[in-house]
Structures are given as C-alpha cells and as structure tokens.
Amino acid sequence: MLLDEPPPNLDLRLRRELLGLLKGLFAQRRMTAVYVTYDIREGGGPMWTASR
C-alpha cells in the first residue's frame, strides 16, 4: 500500500502515533506499505531504511 503523506495536517506527535498504529496493523496483516513523507524529522534523516 502506498501512503503518500497521509496525515499532513496533524502535528508531529500525532503523525508519529498514527505511523506506529499503521506499522502495527501492516505487520499484523503481513502487508507491505510505502510511507512517503517530506518531513525530515518524521522520516528519520536523509537516508532511512525500512524493516521487513
């Protein structure tokens, strides 16, 4: 599933909480998701690696 900056109007704390919930949901269902963000604080820096 592609999530192209899904919660841009939420503050950073709520976006992180939402991302945690989404990660748990996708892990539980063994689904792959690509989360696109332009916020460097949210993305983890210039280079961020996903876990599998």
Key features?
alpha+beta; 12% strand; two-stranded parallel ribbon; 40% helix; 52 residues
Kindly summarize this structure in a few lines:
This protein has helices spanning 12-28, 40-43, and strands spanning 2-4, 34-36.
Explain what you see.
This protein is α+β, with helices and mostly antiparallel strands. It has one domain (2-43). Helix content is 40%, strand content 12%. It has 2 helices and 2 strands; from the N terminus they run E-H-E-H. Helix 1 links the parallel strand 1 (2-4) and strand 2. It starts with a strand and ends in a 9-residue tail after the last helix. The relative contact order is 0.23.
Summarize model confidence as the mean pLDDT: 77
* Number of structural domains: 1
Content of β-strand: 5-15%
| Distance between the ends | 14 Å
Question: Could you tell me the radius of gyration in angstroms?
Answer: 11 Å
Q: Poorly predicted ranges (pLDDT <50, ≥5 residues)?
A: none
Summarize the helices and strands and which ones pair or pack.
Layout lengths: L1 E3 L7 H17 L5 E3 L3 H4 L9
Parallel strand pairs: 1-2
